[in-house]
Structure formats: structure tokens, C-alpha cells
Amino acid sequence: MNVYEEAERALRAAPAHGLLDAIRGVLTRHCRAGAVDLLMADYSLTVLQSVSALPPAAEHLSIDNSPQGRVFGAQEPAHEQRGPATIVHLPVTVRGDRLGVLSVTLPTDACSPAVRSELVDIAEMLAHAITVAERDTDLYRCARRKDRLTLAAEMQWQLLPGHAYRRDEYAIGAQLEPAYAVHGDNFDWSATADHLTLTVTDGMGEGIDAALLSNLTINALRNARRAGIPLADQAALADQAVYARHRGNAYLSVLLLDFELTTGWVQVIDAGSPRLLLLREGTVTAVDFDAQLPLGMFEETDYKAQEFRVRPGDRLVFVSDGVHAVASPAGEAYGDRALARAISATRLLPPAEMPRAVLRELTGHRGRPIPDDDALIVCLDWYGRPTAPDGPPPDDTERTRAHVSPVGGARHASH
């Protein structure tokens, strides 16, 4: 049995909390590993922490200033020489969602290119195993926090699908700040063979009330989506659920999108304040829609989907008002123009890295590290399918189109 097969068997047999021990045993036997450690990225994507030494005893490794952090950011394995030993650092990533780094110390004479290649596959296998194991243990979630989460933040992070996701047609990255005390902002996505549904939510209120409102809305949208009904009806049913509970005293702004992977056509319902900017061929523009009522504001609101089309090479950036409306110490709003500059400056970063880079710049504009409101950024790179057809959809005459305007332009749609 080779090392990959034994690692797979060991992970299947291991208890949920014992995945690292299982991998350590296999690598010790097959590769003469002297040490094996699993480092998890925290919720704010600023530090890596070992699952073997949970907070508060854990020592933090900076994602920005450590060899392990550079592997996490670049998503490429690397190794460093330590006397007669070589330490191999490997990204632990599943379907584009970066969980952490696996560090393996080997005798240098045992660290051949073939062995390093096997370790890459084992690290990916470990990422899949962690995703399943999190249903049954808190170990890996505890390793992701360098500070205690507020109860509202705990509820919000349980809703999220992950920080990133990647397929042949697209890649998504998202980040929410402040990570340890978020209020009501949220994002969600779900993919099938031919569709991607993406939800960007700008919450109302603070603390537990905001978290409960987001939980109700996201789960209402999921329930409607899983019933297979059209996008406009998904929004309507979620609207009814929120209104029935709060009678218009609490509501939620949502940008709801359904991407058709075979063509690049996107149906959109803009029910509030989240914004969409498009980077296409080096130019940033605002994609504007008819503003419709937030979910839960009034009883039995009807929603109408609009459409636009994405092209291979497009980058879409979605932000909550905690980004584009945040004020500097002098009272100047960040706004679409500053956001457009940040989008252009980070155009070479992958979607998984881009939101964090923009949020760092936003901190400089704000003038203090902790925001007063949630700041949410979702970045989507569209690659498309090589066989995607050209031209409008068959029922184009019945479609309502979004308006793509220069940044800072009026917010409207053309029909």
C-alpha cells in the first residue's frame, strides 16, 4: 500500500478530532516525518493557529509575515531548510476554500520531488476530511478563532458557505469584517451543474437581533431555492417570511443573483443597498438595477428579475454599505470612486485574496481598525465555458436589462 492509499484509509478510520494524528502516523511510517502540524486560518484571515495548541495557549503565525502564511496566500507548496531537515508547507484547501497549512518536517534525504508531490495530494485529502469532520467536532472551528466570537458573530459564521469557492467557470472569494463581532451582513452561494446562485445581504440592526434577522432571511431564501422555484418567487417568499415575523419593523437589503453557467446570463433582484461593480477590460463600471423594496418592509411585495451578461475575464465585486458608505475621520464617504481604484489596484490578486486587500485599504480610509458597521466584500471572477453561445437569450424581448454606467453614474436600468 502506498502512502496516499494508507493516508486515505487512515483518515476514513480516524475519529473527527483525530485527523492530524492519523496523518502524522502515516507520514512518520512512510516518510520518516519528524513533526507534522496543521495550522488553521482564523476568521479574519490574519493569523494561522495550530490545532494542537488551541487558544488562548496558541501562538499565532502571521499570514502576511511567515513562510506558512505565504504558502496560504499563494496557494503553492514551499519548503525551508533547517539543518539536516526540510520543512514542507502545503496548502490545505478544498474546492478553492483555503482552510490552512500542513507543515511536515522530513529528513532532507527523504524529501524528494516525488514525496513532495504526494504530500500535496495528502494535504488536499485532509482538507476534504476536515470539512466532513466539522459536523462532529468543534476542534477545527476553535482553531480558527484567535479571539472569542460574540454570539451574533457565531450565528452569522454558521450561516456562511466558506471564504472561497472555485470551479472551471468561476472563482469566488469573500470576507466579512469585523470578523469577531459581525452584525447582520452575510453572503451565501449554491452551485448546480448549470447554475450559480449568489446572495449578498446587507443587514439591519445590531447584535442578536441582526443575526436572527439574517438567519431567518437566508434560510427562507434557501428553502425557496431548494424548492426549485424562480428567482423572483424566491425573493417574494423570503419577503413574506420576514414580514410575517416582524410586520415591517425589521427588514433586510439583498442582492440576489442566478448565473447561467452555459451562457453567462445573470438574473438579478436588487432589493436594497448592496452594490455591484464590474471590472471589464481594465475599466471599472457600476452595474445598476431598478431598486426594489428590501425584504420584509411591506406585505406581499412583488419582485421582478433583471438581467445582464458576464463575459470571460470579468471581475464582479459586491459590497455592503459598510464599505461604500463608510466615512473618513473628516466625514468623506469611501464611495464608488475609491472602491473602483481599489478594484483596479487589486486586479491581479485572486478572488480569495482580493476582499482582504480592499478591507485593509478601507481601514486606512476609516482611520481606525474596528468599523462601526459590517463591511462585506464578495469578489467573483468569471471564466465561462468555452462552448457558451453568443447573442441574446431566446426570450430577449421579455427581459429587463441592467444598466452599466461609469462609476458614480445615476442608479437606473434600461428596458
From TrEMBL:
<protein>
    <submittedName>
        <fullName>Phosphatase</fullName>
    </submittedName>
</protein>
<feature type="domain" description="PPM-type phosphatase">
    <location>
        <begin position="167"/>
        <end position="382"/>
    </location>
</feature>
<dbReference type="InterPro" id="IPR036457">
    <property type="entry name" value="PPM-type-like_dom_sf"/>
</dbReference>
<feature type="region of interest" description="Disordered">
    <location>
        <begin position="387"/>
        <end position="415"/>
    </location>
</feature>
<dbReference type="GO" id="GO:0016791">
    <property type="term" value="F:phosphatase activity"/>
</dbReference>
<dbReference type="InterPro" id="IPR001932">
    <property type="entry name" value="PPM-type_phosphatase-like_dom"/>
</dbReference>
<dbReference type="InterPro" id="IPR052016">
    <property type="entry name" value="Bact_Sigma-Reg"/>
</dbReference>
<keyword id="KW-0378">Hydrolase</keyword>
<dbReference type="Pfam" id="PF07228">
    <property type="entry name" value="SpoIIE"/>
</dbReference>
